[in-house]
Prior knowledge:
Helix content is 22%, strand content 38%. By secondary structure, it is an alpha+beta fold. InterPro entries: HotDog_dom_sf, PAAI_dom, Thioestr_dom.
Amino acid sequence: MKITFEELQAFLDEQFPQGAAFGSLQALGDGWAEMKLEVSDEHLRPGGTVSGPAMMGLADVTLYAALLSRIGLVPLAVTTNLNINFLRKPVAHKAIWARASMLKVGRTMGVGEVFVYSEGADEPVAHSTITYSVPPQR
């Protein structure tokens, strides 16, 4: 692992402060990360469920954290593709959390998957695969 939890947290706070709106870092390991989003009214859609964009944002930032655990603090790594399948309805006003793991990390790209869960449920509410572009090293 190229960075610590504390280093990544400080980096996200400084370089990506808007990321806090998508969740908070809970755990970090070599090629994996976990984040949690406390669901509030702003995350809900009609019908009383967590919105797709809220789950997508959480998945994206969680995989970004997992990628940085492998490549170090690279601010210009960017999402190039995100696919998400919504599997079941999350519980309104319960936190959602995501666990991301890298499937492949190369010189120019990283590919990973993310499972999103609703607090208190055993089965995932969404599954995402995400590709990141990694800028070339100089």
